[in-house]
Amino acid sequence: EFIASADALAADGPRDVGLIFVGDSFVAGYGDPKALGWVNRVVARTTHPDLDLTAYNLGIRGQSSADLLTRWRSEGLPRWAERRERRLVVGIGQADLDQDLTIARSRLNLANMLDDATARGISPFVVGPPPTLDPEFNRGLELLVEAQSDVCGRRSVPYIDCYYPLLEHDQWLQALASSADQRHPGQAGYGLLAWLVLHGGWEHWLQIAP
What is the band of 9 on the pLDDT scale with cuts at 50, 70, 90? Predict the structure, then answer.
């Protein structure tokens, strides 16, 4: 488990944290009429007197783990350059199936990102993909979720399962059914995703007291 350096925690004043979100359309908040998505809802709730947070949302619609593997460093490193403490949130999943990536390739892409981040002193946190209304697509997602969870578990990286908690959740299913593409929810659905993140060890990962 990543623990911020004593240097970072003992510095005078609030901890200077650079928090970068990379991922797909769910990270970008596509479909939310409030333009908040789950990311901005989580950031808005992440307040603490000892935390000076600079957050960047680098979500792009349609991006898979293969796409993120090629860009997370080049986009993240300049944003972390002046920050004392560096943290990375990764949100990927559905696009891996859309691009017909094998489970093995998806596993490797995520593992490489996490290993590279950790080696650079960057603390990772992973948010898995939510379910759709398509049972066949969901069968593929379930395999991917299990693989992501295993990759994170082997590295003691926090993993938020958004699939099983929402698979039969009435509010989530209603949000998808009433959405334009029946895959991305409106504000209520993004609120559910934010709740899962905030109650899935978020404060523990950031090392802030409730």
Answer: low
